[in-house]
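Homework help board

Subject: predicted structure for assignment chain

Our instructor gave us this sequence and asked us to write out the predicted structure in token form, then describe one feature. I got the tokens but I'm not sure how to describe them. Can anyone check?
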Amino acid sequence: MNAGFLKKILPHAIAVILFAVVSFVYFYPVLEGKVLRANDTQVHTINSKEIQDYRDKYHKEPLWTNSIFSGMPAYLISTRYPGNLIKYVDTVLRQFKMPVSVLFVSLLGFYILLIIFGLNPWLSIAGAFAYGFTSFFFQIIAAGHNTQAIALAYMPPLIGSIWYAFRKNALKGALLMGIFLALQVQANHPQITYYALLCIIVFGIVELIFALKTKEVPAFLKTAGILIVPVVIAIGINFASLYTTWEYGKYSIRGKSDLESGAHMTSGLDKEYITHWSYGVDETFNMLIPNYKGGGSHPLPKDSETVKVLRKNNAIDAAASMQAYWGSQPGTEGPHYVGAVVFFLFVLGMFIVKGPEKWWLVSATVLSIMLSWGKNFMIFSDLFIEFFPGYNKFRAVTMTLVIAEFCIPLLGFLALKEFLQGTIQKQELIKKLKLAAGITGGFTILVLLLPGIAGSFRASYETLQNGYPQWLLDSLVTDRKALLRTDAFRSLVFILLAAAVLFAFLKEKIKVSWLTVLMALLILIDLFTIDKRYLNAERFERPANISKLFAPRIADEFILSDTTEYRVLNLTVSTFNDNSPTSYFHHSIGGYHGAKMKRYQELIDTVLNSDLAMISLAAEKAKTIIDFQNVFSNTRALNMLNARYIIINPDGAPVINPNALGNAWFVEKPVIVDNANQELSMIKRINPANEAVVNKVLAANLRDSYISSGNDTILLISYEPNQLIYKSIAASENMAVFSEIYYPKGWKSFIDGKEVAHFRANYILRAMVIPAGEHEIRFSFEPESYTLGNRISLIFSLILIISIAGYLIYSFTMNKKSGIHGAS
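My token output:
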């Protein structure tokens, strides 16, 4: 290893070490053995408990869980895909504990991007801070949105590799794209991958326009054609996860409903659901001033004017509900703050960066901002929801701002690159510098002098009519105005300091090295201190404390003493948004997940909510347990789902549902209906113990009725999440209904080892005609999409590995030949 190579590699090694150190410094509680207490991380632990237990016991994937919503595929909860070998690269890159690893990879990813764009390593380190410490990233880490954060970490090098293919070397860029796209998709956050694609599409459109202008369309098309190959390879590597997710997507709430009319009839999510979290148009200024709209939905400080007047008026109990945030969203963890210094550099970039890069990054930024406005700019949102493929599959349009949060620091650091190259006249640079500082700093001064331009400082619900006294409204305005002014002044200071550093460089008062160090420090201090508002040491706890959250309560212990299979309804939480440990211990009727099955959601909306309302009313009126239990004679959906235990007090014994139908039962009469609407409506009318609703397209071989003797039985004798075995004894042919969710893409049924058909009944359950006699019935979850997908993933993983090895061997050979020729 020669000295030249060491000199070349040293800055990159320093960068990697620095990123690791900075990541550990920010998340220093990890070094104390603490872990981040994040809501979604806890939800994942809860939802994946049954899956992980099975995995630990059998060393294979169950692919199904009954822990939430009476059963669903495990693909979007926790599934491993052995055919995808790129996961080992991800494992190496994320070798540190969470959340240290995701910050490290974010910094490294943007560093690689800037190196690809030709920035020197030291400036690239500063740029990495600009992206990696964007405040939104820390908010999603705090919430436990780990897959989202990881996908964002891989987005910069992915886009950088595509730019490199068009600008430098198509073959090398294609190989890099294959690696980073595979990693990006493997992160398993389709929404971020989709937004990365939007950014790439804008890049492609701008590139094509400039190619037409310079008459270089053939070169553009050639590179675009080459890049199809890594797209195919990356998709192939992740084919198993993509295929299973796509397959399930058609049956999830993101799929098209079978109902023929009503609000459920959609090929994606409802518009109201998609745009529920929409950024206010003026809320966009949060990018420059973090508290422009109060910051996050958190209580005001104890020394605030609002808390003081509440205490004075003997209303201190209301302090927790008095939030700093007053924007148009229903609530928010915090603003999408990109940093005053970074935003200032972005504006400077709009003036001094030339060519397609500027138009691409500015256009993508504007697009993401307008999309984030959602219902506040519905004419534009409608265009994408209705006509842009796949856009209606994602909710929370505020997340489109991740595109801007990528583009803004990139253009800002391309501006610094131009600034340092010396290709622009000093006088011109001074002029543009003053203009950028005047626009960004001028706006902060305007806010300082006239804070009222931000609005009324009141949330829409904070009115006299809603019971807010004038003294409380006045104090809220005072506090929020103070927050705005404080942060406006803060942003102004950072803008002036950054402008002063650049001006000092132009006046030859400082050298490039000092400019780089000072800009890095300003960016890091600016973002670091804001990030601490949303994710600090207080969010970390000892593992022993977190484990207490998963300690069973009295109701849980009572239920767990029952060793048979059943389901639990927890009424002490929001049943169908339940992130309590219910699903950690039991098979739950409810749960918490963003991709439940569509038919189950429709059952919730139409039938289960009615059952819950009846139970709640009965709980209020019943004088004895027997009175309360009488209500279950009418809770048809809960009974057919085998909801045996009802938790009404976690610190007391649960109520037992005497009408729960068990794991399987024989019915005498199939009720044949014409369509999905009738399937759903008939659930409220039938007696599920004796009748079963069946769509006519599934009822071709059914008899009008079946006769079951008193001695006929069907019992579950073996349970695993992906395999259920029953024993049936019947004097004659019978129709059985199973309290298991019907999902046609993987569940196979067998009688005495011979595969037979089963069909859907009661809108969401499984049913089967069973011959007379004694038989073993087995349901096994064996999705072909998983088996085939992993084979394809393995093949494409090997193709990428061989391609990289081949390219490296070819490059080494050519360099060696070049060295020999040079020596001669």
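Reply (TA_rk): Your tokens look well-formed. For the description, you could write something like this. The first strand starts at residue 35 and ends at 36. That's the kind of observation they're looking for.
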